Amino acid sequence: MHLIAETAMHHDGDFNFFKNLIINIAQNTDAAFIKLHIMLDIDEYMHTDHPAYQWAKDRLFDELQWTEIVNLVLKNEKKLMLLFNDKKAIDFGMSFNPDIVEIHSVCLNDLNLLNHLKSEITQDTYLVLGVGGSTVYEIENAISVLNHKKIVLMHGFQNYPTKYEDINFAKIRRMMQLFPEFAHGYADHTAYNNDNNILITLLGASLGMEYVEKHVTTAWGEERCDWSAAISIEMFNELSEKLKVLTVSNGNGLLTLNSGEQSYSTFGINKKAAILRSNVKKGDVFTSECFTFKRTAQPSDLSQLDVIGSVGKVFTSDFEIGHCVVKSNLI
Questions:
Q1: How many domains are contained in the chain?
Q2: Cβ within 8 Å of residue 244, ≥6 positions away
Q3: Do 124 and 233 share a structural domain?
Q4: I want to staple 183 with a disulfide (CB 3.0 to 4.6 A). Which of 101, 128, 148, 210 is the partner?
Q5: Using CA atoms, how far apart are residues 227 and 203, in angstroms rounded to an integer?
Q6: What element of type H or E holds 292?
Q7: Interval 178-187 mean pLDDT
Q8: What are the phi and psi torsion angles at 233 (to 5°)?
Q9: Structural domain span for residue 236
Q10: What HEC string does 155-208 produce?
Q11: Do 141 and 80 reside in the same domain of the chain?
């Protein structure tokens, strides 16, 4: 399971704040990825009549500033995840060979953006599609247009902060079943001060997510962009430790018994074993009337199914009532 530290527009256009945030995440957490929202051409992304147009325009960084930020991530040996809002951002960002790129749910079927990314992305790059608040038809269309093998569907939506009754894990489970060929992730936007913040994230992760994303801040509770869903470095680290427990608890999914299960499944001590109901002689036929299943201090190498399958064999020696039957007793 990969933990993503999301920075978004939390910098509010303050370049020094942003650099400090990146350094703190990189040096003080074990986030697998640091996610950056790169926007270079706001007029491609947003019309001038949008109420946030001027606000966003005032907070844009240029390519030199973004280069410094990206290099901070790479210098600190963190993997790079880039979200693109416009074609110029794609051209710029792909020059850094990011491990993961993303198209936000608000751009999910912007064909100009999708086709441009398709022309620039390599088959080795993972492509995240934000699918929160999107219909199955919208998701299917984006997948069809991109025709990319390494797609990650990122669930969760940004109605800051997300009320847990709106998350709808049952729907997310169904969406995951509809697209089993792709990896899945959960981007949580629960309120930063919600007592159940970490619990809700863990519940989302436990659905079988390969990626978990959280907004992170060095100014917890300060009213900046995306502040209502941004958790502290300390909370992020607590979440990381709990996700490690969840990952170990999930195991490998193999249907064979692991060592712990094998120890529990010892026949005799734990699971019932075959105990003779009467004395038997060498050469007697082993019948279903010969035994009963009981827990006993005597270990057996015969499972209950092995015992049933051994009916009809004969005893190799004399055995007394109460004896626990093992493989070597029958031929």
A1: 2
A2: none
A3: yes
A4: 210
A5: 22
A6: strand 291-294
A7: 96
A8: -55, -40
A9: 2-250
A10: ECCCCCCECHHHHCHHHHHHHHHHCCCCEEEEEECECCCCCCHHHHHHHHHCCC
A11: yes
